[in-house]
Amino acid sequence: MSIEFRKDLFADERDDNLNEIGKPKLRQDIEGHVTGRTAYYDDHLFDGLLHMRCLRSPHHHARVRSVDVAEAERMAGVRRVVRPADVPSNLNTLLSLIGFGKDDEQLLSDPVVRYRGEPILAIIADTEAIARSACAAVRVDWEVLPHVLDVEEAIAPGAPSVNPAYPDNTFTYAPYDHVKLRFGDVAAGFAQADHIVEAEYEMSPIEQAPMETCGAIAAPETADRFVCHTGTQALFFSLGTTAKLLDIASSRLHFIGGTVGGGFGGKVDSITEPMAVLGAMLTGRPVKFQWDRMEEMQVGAPRGAERWRIKDGVMADGRIVARQFTGFFDAGAYTRLSSYAGHKGTGHLPGPYTIPNVASNVFCVFTNRTPATAMRGFGITGVDFALECHMDRVAEAVGVDPVSLRILNAYRDGDMKAHRRSAKNCALVECCQVAAGKAGWGLSAQDMAASSLTGTTAARAAIPETALDDEGQEGARRAGRCASADPAPGTRRLPAGVQGRAMAAVPVQRPDMQILAERIGHKIPEGGPAPAAAPTAPARLPNDPAAAAPGPALPAAAADPAPVPPAAAPTPPAVPEPTAPYAPEKPFSRGVKRPGVSRFLSGSRRR
Amino acid sequence: MTRHSGRGFACINYPIGMNLGGDPAQALVHSTPDGKFMVTLSAIDLGQGMKSVTRQIAAEALGVPLADVYVDTADSDTGPHDMGSFASRGTHRVGNAVIRAASEARAQMMEAAAEELEVSAQDLDTDGAGNIHVKGAPSRQITVADTAIAAQFKQGRTLSGRGIFLIEPSGVDPDTGEMSPVTTYAHAALIVDLDVDDETGEVEVTQINSAYEVGRALNPKLVEQQLIGGAWMGVSHALYETTEPYYPDRSHGPEDFNTYLMPGPGEIVPHDIAVLERPAADAPYGGKGPGEMCANPVLPAVANAVYNAVGVRVDKLPITPEKILRGIRTNGGARPGPRRPGV
Q1: ipTM of this predicted complex?
Q2: More confident site: A502 or A323
Q3: Whether B243 and A348 lie within 8 Å, measured CB to CB
Q4: Radius of gyration of chain A from Cα atoms?
Q5: pTM of this prediction?
Q6: Which of residues 26-65 of B touch A (CB under 8 A)?
């Protein structure tokens, strides 16, 4: 084990003489952690604490015909059976807090369950053991329904419908049932390529595996409020979700957390908090709701499964001239955060490479499995696995050294990315060079001379004419009107150079909040490091126009001659400009309905 | 039985902050009467060091010693809104909010000190050790503590600041996928060496060499811990972990740590790391979030090394002994690939 800090690289962009930044200072909370005195949510054990457990579906998809709780209710120590009807506003979707997606999930489900482990009622008892026994004593008459577990079976015509909010089993990215990415014309790129390399990759669900399982302890507080000690990763997400589901003003909730025993993405879903607060509301007593390890692993949302098909068109020298993706995020039965992965994964394509023709279709698919959610690398980890395995396949197909292939295709400052924003602040080439150097993986002089700062050209910086299609309208796939999930051939063309405005940070609201220019610790001119230097040292094969923009559709890319400087870097504008109220150029396609309005309305205002 | 060595490479970039923006973070900073500073947040410390990195950022931006700053998070009654600790947004979003709040508090502090020293605030600087002095005349100085006492009890002035940081929210064009996903990216490249046993299919990762570009190592120890732990998680994801071993079939799902396979302390891989720092223009002191991205290059690098070792492309994670053995059998035996440079 060793670590070195390569201060020699990018040294002219940094101020390394700071007082506290860059110093290996001890953590503020380390003494509490190593002596076992740090308080986590589970250390707030109130007098008279009650315990809540859920009764869960043993089926992938079923309807509850009837529930008999008579025996459970008679058990000594059972305080309350909590039914779906006890949840005041029993339908939500996590990202409704930012106005994205339809409400599609109940806190306690009635009458249909859509994954194995879905809760249909909860029992609050004096001890956890009694609550467990009482759940075991509930008798449920299940009508088992047909289910679907595979993402591509789920989008086929005739598949069982999983989630009534999305009856076609795909999240809606209106007007399509998938996220499209179109840049250039992949068909033209494939036609031009010397090799076609295709493969399919898959990642199974993965558990976040925090030492501390998800949970919350809620108790009535004075002034008609409830306190909730929680291990959430997102305090106000959990607070807002609780206010919505329980239909109470957010001002009646007092959430305390901040010190968490590991999260890795699995503690954003905000299920245990509304359950615990609901228990405290219904009993007037402190209530703890905590997943055991089995629930954490099989009921708590994992990192979702992904399936990716990649098709590359490659020139004999290793330049990738076209890359096509078809991707499936397996959301499980409900949306949670998977809808976001569709956008995030798409924005990540085609990886950190400059490829002149890119197309992708990315689906967020509902199946009868445990809902998926965030985990470290969310929306990216599975994509990177596919991309980098595929790069090795390409290297083998063309007989180029795998590291050299990456450097050849790596994105450089000023290059245009497939999502139509300029690359800046790149460092992939340098990472390749340094890692190879550490492992003694020798690179050619040409590869060692490459730099992220140089190499862009007018063609690499330009947005090409783009082939578009209208395949995959919402509902068409289920009706059998879509031949394939893969990107369809273009039916119309978007002129070269079409680009909207790059989003950036909102400036400070008062000048005093702006850090002084001499104190920001880096020396990057606004707009990134001098793109003017770029054209003087082009990337490899600069004389071959096909290097950057192949295909017959190469339009007058020169209409946009210089690399467009990246959008204004917000830190530090010398003088903060007055902030105009934010106005979108067109309606938000991800469903933000009222820009400028707080995304954290209280429960009562949301009504 | 033979153990075959393999070497694999992968490189990645990683988006910093919530995709498409719209994820604000706020911070409040105020001084106690004797010149200590409280930073109030709703950020979550999952063990990644949120409290520590925001404390360092606040101390740097205020120009006071680290020991004089304390971070209080997350109580919804006192901490201002923050979206949460996910999407590699903590350092970038909260760190920027803290800089803004600390900068406003610092401006107040310098005004208060200027009044005491009877000079212009523009002529003052901090020494980072708890003193404010006239630039070029270090003997004309006042302590931060005396400044705070004077501000509070004599001048009637608060040394406090508010900060919010928001990347404006945006959408995705449904026809082209045009979007502004994030404003900056971290980078990594990584080489994995491993052995594959062609009788058992077992993989032993023997060495990792890596380069991680993190913008700025705000706290080098915290960065080191993240990178070592994260790369180890990457090995675990590559070779062991899943809740559904026969996905999409749901059978054989593990329910505890006896059946959910993860590497133990004995499988910690020797890992030699180089950290690169290319500061991002809109990041606090240039720092990007190293925590999420560090596992990502390990998965494909392991897969590529397994292929290099025995000629089996396992394209479905995790890369279990069962899948490797089935691949070797399909190929009619192990087919070691070309010896990679440096082996």
Answers
A1: 0.97
A2: A323
A3: no
A4: 27
A5: 0.92
A6: 41-47, 49, 51-52, 55-57, 59-61, 63, 65
